[in-house]
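1st attempt posting a full record on here, be nice pls
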Amino acid sequence: MLLVRVFLTLIVVVICSVLPLASAAAQTKITIGVAAMSPRTIPLLLAQEQGLFAKQGLDARIVLIKGAPILVASLISGDLEIGYTGGTPVLGAAASGPHLKILASISSKLTHMMLAHPNLKTAEQLRGKRFGIQSLGGTNWMHTILALEYVGLDVKRDNLNLLMIGDSVVIGQSLEAGRVDAVVLDGVLARRLISKGFSVIADLAPVNIPMVNQALVASPDFLQKRPELAERILMVLVDSLAYTLAPMNKSVVVRTIMRRLKIDDAKVGEDGYQDLMTSIDRKPFPSLEGLRNIRRLMATQNPKTANVKVEDLIDSRIIRKLDENGYMDKVAAGYGLK
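the predicted structure (as tokens):
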């Protein structure tokens, strides 16, 4: 009888030790490419750190690919399953042939600020100055052009020099170091510079300029072959947005913002949190007007862009299904949101 008990105990131990391995092995591996590290990347990072991908049976690897054109090329070639980027590179790719699909847009208006060296106080003083951008024709470039348009400046007419510096964090560091004279940055990074005395030339948040700042993007081939996987990924996105917006998770979100964006000032971290709360949407429907705005400006650089039918770049079937079947509201209610 004792031997039987020992044998049964061993079986239980073996089963308990194997189950976690079996569960891990059952998870679907996916690779998500991020074109730049910015405040709007925080919900995606939280999804990974807080186990929201694992909850949907996904083992997500998030890869920083500096430069949206490279990320788009990786999506088209199939090296990436999902891209996390703006609408600008998607529209740019469509102008030369391959169409990608925007599945969701977590931020559909421009919430950036135009900042300058402390000695520069007005838009007029920026004529002939250097602006830091990530890449010509990229999303940060689009933000910069829209901001310049709003304050009445023109790149050619006002002899502005757009320098390709790097992602948003590097752009901010370049302004601090004096390598550029002005930048257009998102809230938390902008707040950090403001706290150090840099000038606010324009705050674009109250203007409500339509824009696709951060989108979840995939190739039509991936959507056709793996629709269930695409749906699970979008379920994670909805979950992560609700998690981020929930007041109960504020301390976690603030710590993640400060750690991931290398912020050491608690007040700047708090300001960044407040900015994030107003710049992301709980229901991340793709913005058609945002894409139309992008096409309008991109056409000034690439005439082929004017012929792109932006409606063809949006596939909102899954995200609308998650709204219509009550999933979005159910997830939100679980975090105490309405």
